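Slide 14.
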Amino acid sequence: MQEILIGDYRIGAGHLPFIIAEMSGNHGQSLEKALEIVDAAAAAGCQGLKIQTSTPDMLTLNSREPDFIVRGANQDWEGQSLYELYTTNYTPYEWHAAIFARAQEHGMVAFSSPFGTEAIDFLESVGCPAYKIASFENNWPELIRHAARTGKPVIISTGMADLADLERMVAAVRAEGNEQVILLKCTSTYPALPHNTNLATIPHLRQMLGCHVGLSDHTMGTGVAVAATVLGAAVIEKHLTLRRADGGPDSSFSMEPDEMARLVQECRQAWQALGTVQYGPTEAERKSLAFRRSLYVVEDVAAGEVLTRQNVRVIRPGHGLPPHLLEQVLGRPVRQAVRRGTALSWDLL
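Slide 15: predicted structure.
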């Protein structure tokens, strides 16, 4: 698989996981707060900042008929109409340029989830460098194809998708001559629980569909993201809020800035710890070899005297012959007098 470039960040084997802070509706309809979230994401060490591009009318009807009322998804959404929910959750178009510019000032790359083809057309006008298709939109081939036609990376969350859905969404991107597709393993519950996350899917998806795979994480804490990193997740996406106590549609499953900073640090450490297949002492371990056990003469031995379990022991430090040679040296005479505390070596026998 070829590496994928989003802004100045390379995604793929051999690169740190690309960590995205998802702002969603946590700005509470305040541009000032939205820019504070950008600052917080940068301070936490995130490389990416994602927003959402939609209008309520792009998503649904303004209706309180039973089909349009939220039931059982998230306690903060319960009883609202879809239209009401999306009215509090959307990011005004006129904010996009300011948010993108603030992210760029911090060296981050900002991009968006479009919720309609017209949203993609608008995002093209403000130089959006990549597109994220949300789980609830991943069954809409037209939207995926429209994003793919830009020639930019297309990141797709896989929540609720079965194998046929997954094949269709990847094929839709590639049919437009675009190989820059990244799938994010996602559990579309809010919040999600670790036992429903099924991270073992990550390497299977990568092998089955031949594309980079990451995680869109709605669980609380850092453990799931760290585990995904160990399984080869190329991207980690996590919702960010300044304070969960502020409330909002996504606040209950969003991280606060100090938690996000910890996630970034722990995912990077997990990635670094993977390393390569390694046997024998590493360069860093060489100084510790002295603290292993080895064969030492523990009593004064005269020239010609035979080595026994009384005058040779397996002790620290590790400057003598290795312990597995003990049986080979017992019963053999020494060629010269040897003092107590001498590391045993072949030239003494």
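Speaker note: The chain has a mean pLDDT of 96.
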